[in-house]
Design goal:
Length: 269
């Protein structure tokens, strides 16, 4: 398959990585994208490390069979647990996401940074490396966002249930003097309006979608994989491993990912 029509393969534990896919689509409108939301197995944050590694390999293989010229692991949990494995097994570029600890430390005036992430991301060695490398003069307040991914997977990004969990997790951070909040799951990017409504300008919010899109552009250019300039209206395929695809369809519409194919698929381990 020529680079002109070969897609960028993107996967996440569910719908959260759509924030990354949308950022890639905005920055690289000439690139085809195949996105798979593993909503049938979400959330990853409560799964074992072994399961996350195995599932990530399965999704990567599925995307490569569909001609992916590069892989984007649009999931903080899968990145922290499986990125090294994927890079050792596959010859194409593999780009991961990770919590924006460095930019958060740089932007925090109080040097008190909150990290809202899944339990699996918080226990990962990679996050601990990031905290140690960039936070010697900074205090971190870390919190697992239990229940938030499940709500987002149902298509709920605002309302009383979301507000109650955000208050439970973030009010203690505000009381501790946190002025910068790292959204350590791509799912949480969809909660930014709710966080702002509840906490005003208490937190500077750090998410990574735009930074990942820039990295994808750089890696494609470096490997000579950019799409042919002559390709018009590249394909945008969105898949979910859940039988219900309406949450994915609603999110695609909200993100202005028009003209995309949305379907349910089985990606067996």
């Amino acid at each position: 398959m020529s680079n002109g029509i070969a897609p960028i393969g993107v996967f996440d534990s569910g719908l959260g990585g759509m924030s990354v896919a949308a950022a890639i689509h905005r920055r690289l409108p000439g690139e085809a994208i195949v996105y798979v939301a593993d909503s049938g197995f979400a959330p990853y944050g409560e799964k074992t490390d072994a399961f996350i590694k195995t599932r990530s390999r399965t999704l990567a293989q599925w995307l490569i069979r569909r001609g992916a010229k590069a892989l984007v692991v649009a999931c903080n949990t899968a990145t922290t647990q499986a990125i090294s494995l994927l890079r050792s097994e596959f010859a194409i570029p593999v780009i991961g996401v990770e919590p924006g600890i460095k930019p958060a430390v740089q932007s925090s005036a109080a040097k008190v940074v909150g990290v809202l992430a899944t339990a699996a991301t918080l226990r990962s060695g990679r996050l601990q490396e990031l905290l140690s490398s960039h936070g010697r003069d900074c205090r971190f307040v870390c919190q697992a966002g239990h229940g938030l991914v499940e709500l987002i997977e149902q298509g709920t990004v605002a309302g009383a249930c979301v507000d109650a969990l955000l208050d439970k997790y973030l009010a203690p951070m505000a009381e501790a003097g946190v002025d910068t909040l790292v959204l350590g799951s791509t799912h949480y990017a969809f909660l930014m309006p709710s966080i702002t409504r509840a906490f005003g300008d208490q937190f500077h919010l750090v998410e990574t979608g735009s930074a990942i899109a820039r990295r994808v552009e750089d890696r494609l250019t470096e490997h000579g994989l950019r799409a042919d300039a002559s390709v018009a209206n590249p394909a945008l395929h969105l898949y979910s491993t859940a039988s219900e695809t309406r949450p994915l369809q609603r999110l695609a519409h909200a993100l202005c990912l028009v003209g995309s194919e949305v379907a349910s698929v089985s990606v067996d381990m």
